[in-house]
Structure formats: structure tokens, C-alpha cells
Amino acid sequence: MENEIKTRLLLAEDDESLGLLLKDFLQAKGFEVTLCDNGNKAFDAFTKDTYDLCIFDVMMPEKDGIALTKEVRMVNKNIPIMFLTAKSMKEDIIEGFNRGADDYITKPFNTEELLVRIQALLRRSKPKEDGTDEFQVGDYTFNYRSQMLDYKGKHEKLTTKEAELLRLLCLNANNVLDRNFALKAIWHNDSYFNSRSMDVYVTKLRKFLKDDPNVQIINIHGKGFKLFVEKGS
Asked: Which CATH number fits domain 8-130: 3.40.50.2300, 3.40.50.10330, 3.30.450.20, 3.40.50.150?
């Protein structure tokens, strides 16, 4: 039992007392818990490690739970996310679900109810985790898990970094992918060296996608990149 792999939770809660109480409770129930006291720290932790489920307080300094969820969903569309909220307003709940939350619980709450909800989310998430991240990009088919890009019977095996960058572009197809966000999500910091490295990978992806004229990676000056896919292609 000593070597049993624990389910890993990312908890973002700015109330120090509540955060520590929840961390102790969940660890006592067998989870491994990383506690962050604001949204920026939570996203930094998320990009640097692997988690099975996230629990985000809605009202936090620097970055609230809704903004945090939006960023997490750009990196991982499948991980279960639960909101802790002091508000019971219908608008907040709807906004949370629109941003990608899977469940919510309103403060004050019973810790045993929280545990039951966590267990239910983990059960529901398992089939998703077993699936593949597959995207249709014009006439291309991109499978993120196998890192394979297919075009009319022609196969291109991508490197890990190429696959991670193309996945973010696909998740934001026809929208701007923020340059700094991509650097932090894939390279974990936005240094000059990593920025130049990302430009090289973008150039490589453009070459891989050149056979379909309806697919382009466009530079958006001062912002980032856009994977433009002509509708109906």
C-alpha cells in the first residue's frame, strides 16, 4: 500500500483557514493535494504538474476561478473542475458551466458532500481520459495522443512539443492563441530563448500543414497566433 498511486487534486482557495482545512480533510481521505492561494499560482502549478481533478474558489485575488478555468480548459479539456462559491446566484453558476466547470458547491458546505461530489466527478471523467484527442483541421486529421498528423494517407509523426503546440492551436481554431499563454503552458516560462524556440516550431507546423490551402497559421502582431481553417474546407 505504501507505493499506491494517489489521486492528485489541485485546490485553489484564498481563504487560508478553509484552504488548510480542506487540504487536511482530503489528504486524510487518501488524496494528494496541492493548495494555492490565488489563481495565478494555481495555473502555474497546473502547467508544471499532472492532476486528476481541480477545485477552484470562484472569488480569488489576481485571477478568479472563472478566468482560471478558462485557461485550464485551453490546456486540458477533460480534467474535472469543481467550483467553490460563496454565491448562489444563478448567473454565477451558469457562467461557471459556460467556462468549463463540471460541478459546483456553495459555501458553507459539508465536507462529506464535497467528498461525494469529487468521487462522482472522478468516476465520470475516466471514460474521457481513456479516449483520444483527435482534431479535424481542414483535410488533416491530428491525433494528439499518438502525435500523428494525417493528410490523405500521408502520415507525419510530430515531436512532443510540436504536438502540444498544434493541440493548443486546434483548441483555439479561428481564435487567437495568446503567445505568452502558449509559452507558459508548453515551455513553462516566457523567456526570450523559449519564445524564439516556439517560432521555430510554428514554422515547422506551417510546413506540415502546407498541403491544404484552406489551413493557415497566422501571426497576430503583439498577441500570438491563429490557426485559420476555412469553413467548409
From this structure: 3.40.50.2300
Return the amino acid letter for 129. Answer: E
Give pLDDT tens digits for 60-111.
988 999 999 989 988 887 889 999 987 666 676 777 777 788 888 888 889 9
**134-229 classified as CATH 1.50.10.10:** no
- Is residue 148 within 8 Å of 157, Cβ to Cβ? yes
Q: Could you identify the residue written with the cell 485551453? A: 74
Measured CA to CA, the distance from residue 97 to residue 222 in angstroms comes to: 31
Residue type, 195: S
pLDDT for res 167 = 93
195-211 pLDDT tens trace: 899 999 999 999 999 99
Q: Do the beta carbons of residue 215 and residue 230 sit within 8 Å?
A: yes
If 0-12 CB within 10 Å is exposed, 13-18 middle and 19+ buried, where does residue 118 land? buried
